[in-house]
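User: Can you fold this complex?
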Amino acid sequence: MILSGIRVCCDAGSESRLDALDARCRVVCAFFTAFLLASLRDTASLLAASLLPAMLLCVDGLRGAEDLARRLLPLNGVSVLVVLFLPLTYPGERVFYLFSERGLFMSFIIIWKLNLISAVLLKLVASMGMTRLSGALEGLGVPLKLRSLLLLTTRCVFLLGERFSTICRALDLRAGDASGFPVCRAFAYMVGTTLIHSSDRAERSVLAIGCRGGLSGFAGLASSRWTWREPAFCLLFVINSAFILMASL
Amino acid sequence: MHVSEGFLGPQVLAAGWAVTAAGVAWGLKKMDEGEIVRVSMASSVFFLASLVNVKVGPSSAHLSLIGPVGLILGWSAFPAIFTALLLQAVLFQFGGLLVLGANCAAMALPAVLAHIVFGSFVRGANDKIAAAASFFAGAFAVLASACIVGLLLFFSDREMALTAKTIFAAHLPLSAVEGAVTLFMALFLRRTFPDVLRGAGQR
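Assistant: Here's the predicted assembly.
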């Protein structure tokens, strides 16, 4: 279990200069740019696109770069698998009788895009935390039910996390070396038991939320204001996108 | 089961988001306010369960539990899986935010299909049929999900056809494990708390 990781990530409230910006503006700019980055397939345009994460890092300085590097590290674990796997299955001329030349180039492009897209989305969206993200989704017209579900699930993950850790420890103590069907059965029973306990808890939570005025209590958690910074930030992204498109021509 | 950022083209990403938006909207429509807490609890249980490493033979695996999610939540699996994947992307950087639509479609569609095809058999009176149906629901959901992931890769780049086939083949042993876990879980819930198997919005 990596529950301690959940807590660290959640508590690490982004003390970033980007926090001065409206959350909706950050989400829209990030997704617009990420879609553009996903369409790139050549090195010239990717090179031009690499300026954007660099610019975002300049805003936050060294601490922001360290945080981003820490968050990008698990993603690049996936990249290693891509480098090993994709050239083996991709068509084209073989290098060392095994790796496809085009496959190697493709995996290089994919890893580059993975890092660029993730850097933009992590810096602009993931770093704002669940509460601000929920506020941004509210501003963008996402239904209250989905926002409530998001906030409640975040809360429930922490609530049930402790219980899950306890059951996992108990399982380890009782049958740490077992594998195969007994483990599948034990795991299934563990999930089933937690599900039943969570159902009991849900009944009480429904009553508690009802007492607090229903789901309307989840609305309007974050307020935001549109100042001169937001149009300037959007303009910066539009200019950057135009630059990337010019490079890809 | 997650597709990472960078693999999929913009058309496939847009299609994934469209399917997810439609599924989430329909799932939310069928879910009343009182169900939200139950769905969020179930969603977080599966979120946490997918983080646990299960020993399988000489190796170990993180199970996706798509089948049980579908059997327990029904159409609410769409918003529940969307929320869980969003949390995974934001908190752990598993998957990604741009591919969230495609990943959600690849996992939630098989979950809902498992609910529609096998749900009534799993809830039925016959224990043997329920056991077989729950095994097939778990295995089918994983294989269908692998199939959708393969199709997403193929439609992004036709030259990834062999990669897509390899991904599907790699999921065959995992589907048996997921089937076994779903079988044990369904039988356990039938004995202890059968109400939970009715699917959200139908209790």
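Confidence is low (pLDDT under 50) at residues 4-13 of chain A. Chain A touches chain B through 84 residues (CB under 8 Å).
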